[in-house]
C-alpha cells in the first residue's frame, strides 16, 4: 500500500467539530478528503446490497436506503454496525486512497477527515504521516448532536457511545486540538497547529 506521506488523518467523536476544523483549515489553503461524503456516495451506489442485508424496511420510495431507519438499526447494535461497515468500508477505503494518491503528487499537507480512523485500524489501514484528534467533552458533543441532527438525548448518546471513547482516540493520536470554546479560540489553535507542522517527510 502506498504511504500517504503528506496526509494528516483528522478524527474525533461525532459532534466534536471535525467539519468546522476542516473549514478552518481550508481557509489557509489546505485540501481535505471527507470520508462521510464518500460514505454517502458509496451507500447510494451499493444500496441494493445494503437493503438485501438489512431488509426492505430500510428502503425508501426511490429504492434507495432510508438513512434514518438504517441509523436506528446500526447504532443500536454493534453486530449490525459491523455488518454495515463490512459492506461499505472496502469501497470507502478504495475511494479515499484513490483521491489521496492525486493529492500526494502536490507535495503539500492535506487532511483525511475520517471519523472512524482508529476504529478501522488507524495507520495500518490508512498509512498517513500524522493523526490529529479534535477533542470535545462528551456532554458538549451530545448537545451538538441533538441540535444538529434533531435527536433526543438518548439517541444522541447512543451514537456517541457507538464510537471509540474520545479519551482513547486522544491517547492514540499524534496531535490534539481542543474544541470546547468559541470559534475564535478554535481558529487560534488551528493557526498554532499549522505553524507547528514539520516539513513533509521529516
Automatic annotation (TrEMBL):
Pathway: Cofactor biosynthesis; coenzyme A biosynthesis; CoA from (R)-pantothenate: step 5/5. It is found in: Cytoplasm. GO terms for biological process: coenzyme A biosynthetic process. Its EC number is 2.7.1.24. ATP binds at residues 15-20. It catalyses: 3'-dephospho-CoA + ATP = ADP + CoA + H(+). Pfam families: CoaE. It is an enzyme of class 2 (transferase). Belongs to the CoaE family. Catalyzes the phosphorylation of the 3'-hydroxyl group of dephosphocoenzyme A to form coenzyme A. This is Dephospho-CoA kinase. The gene is coaE.
Amino acid at each position: 500500500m502506498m504511504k500517504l506521506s503528506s496526509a494528516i488523518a483528522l478524527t474525533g467523536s461525532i459532534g466534536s467539530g471535525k467539519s468546522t476544523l476542516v473549514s478552518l483549515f481550508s481557509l489557509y489553503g489546505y485540501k481535505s478528503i471527507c470520508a462521510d461524503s464518500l460514505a454517502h456516495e458509496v451507500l447510494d451506489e451499493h444500496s441494493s446490497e445494503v437493503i438485501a442485508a438489512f431488509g426492505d424496511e430500510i428502503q425508501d420510495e426511490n429504492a434507495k436506503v432510508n438513512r434514518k431507519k438504517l441509523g436506528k438499526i446500526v447504532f443500536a447494535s454493534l453486530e449490525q454496525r459491523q455488518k454495515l461497515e463490512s459492506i461499505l468500508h472496502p469501497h470507502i477505503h478504495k475511494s479515499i486512497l484513490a483521491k489521496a494518491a492525486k493529492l500526494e503528487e502536490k507535495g503539500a499537507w492535506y487532511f483525511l477527515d475520517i471519523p472512524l480512523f482508529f476504529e478501522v485500524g488507524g495507520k495500518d489501514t490508512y498509512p498517513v504521516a500524522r493523526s490529529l484528534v479534535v477533542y470535545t467533552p462528551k456532554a458538549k458533543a451530545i448537545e451538538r448532536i441533538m441540535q444538529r441532527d434533531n435527536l433526543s438525548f438518548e439517541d444522541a448518546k447512543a451514537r456517541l457511545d457507538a464510537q471509540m471513547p474520545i479519551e482513547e482516540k486522544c491517547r492514540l493520536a499524534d496531535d490534539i486540538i481542543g474544541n470546547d470554546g468559541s470559534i475564535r479560540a478554535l481558529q487560534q489553535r488551528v493557526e498554532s497547529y499549522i505553524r507547528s507542522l514539520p516539513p513533509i517527510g521529516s
